[in-house]
Specification:
Elements lengths: L6 E6 L6 H14 L6 E6 L2 H12 L7 E5 L6 E5 L1 H11 L3 H16 L7 H18 L16
Parallel strand pairs: 1-2, 2-4
Antiparallel strand pairs: 3-4
Length: 153
């Protein structure tokens, strides 16, 4: 189910072929979450750019997989995703690239909707919603990692 009235703009600075796939995943996620009439931007960037953004906005000196920027004026906000880090994490955790990309987009969208994983109760709530969405996408066993939610690279 796609989300009615949602506008998803994807800019792929990596010259990859991810834009259509990302747009479809985002729309399906928003539909499952019953988010309507919203705008969301997704920028796909390389490792160097992601490291700059992560340093600038989170004071972390490494490239991460996804950054979320809520923007109430734009109704939802923006995600910055680094496909290279997503690929690295997929290999690291034994996931496919597509399943890892789905997870990262779900994770980022949940942050835009106010979910967090700082406190244990918040982490449980967010992980429960992530599992529901992963099952919806057909990835029940994805991301069985210890310590996830602290800081992901």
């Amino acid at each position: 189910m796609l989300s009615p009235g949602c506008c998803v703009l994807v800019k792929d600075s990596t010259r990859g072929k991810n834009a259509t796939k990302v747009r479809n995943i985002v729309l399906k996620t928003l539909g499952f979450l019953k988010v309507k009439d919203s705008r969301l931007g997704v920028q796909l960037v390389g490792i160097r750019r992601m490291k700059q953004y992560n340093c600038q906005f989170r004071h972390k000196d490494y490239a991460t997989d996804v950054l979320s920027f809520p923007d109430p004026d734009e109704l939802l906000g923006d995600l910055i995703v680094c496909p290279q880090v997503v690929k690295r994490n997929a290999r690291r955790y034994g996931n496919t690239y597509e399943s890892e990309l789905i997870f990262v987009l779900i994770h980022g969208i949940l942050h835009l909707l106010g979910y967090n994983h700082i406190q244990p109760a918040e982490r449980v709530r967010m992980e429960r919603k992530e599992r529901q969405l992963l099952i919806h996408f057909g990835y029940q066993d994805l991301r069985q990692r210890s310590g996830f939610g602290q800081d992901h690279r």
